Amino acid sequence: MSTPRGGFTLQDIEGNIYRLWAEKQFTVALLMSTIVAQLLAAQFMLLRIQSATNGTVAPSPLERVDLTCSDGNLQTEDGGAPDLSTAEGKTVVVHLDMGTNACLTELSSVEIGELVVGVSQ
Fold it and tell me: Could you tell me the residue range of the domain that residue 93 belongs to?
């Protein structure tokens, strides 16, 4: 049975391999089995390559809120006090000084969409 495009299905190839084994044409059956295995391996590798290229894109400035944390105080990038209600449902990027954790506790009181933490030196 062939596909609409004129190719063969995996069941057709499997049937042919069994037929060749029954007819004691072992070399041809083994060759067909090897070809099927190589095709399946190539298809699997292509699927892995395609999924790796569909990486995560950084959210746009409209979809995220950038904040800084200095000496335990949460601030906007320009140094002002943040309005945490604008962070609801958005990705929040908090730029921390080394060893600062108090800002994360403050942010946990708001239902944000995603929290991304970056440590700068």
Answer: 64-119
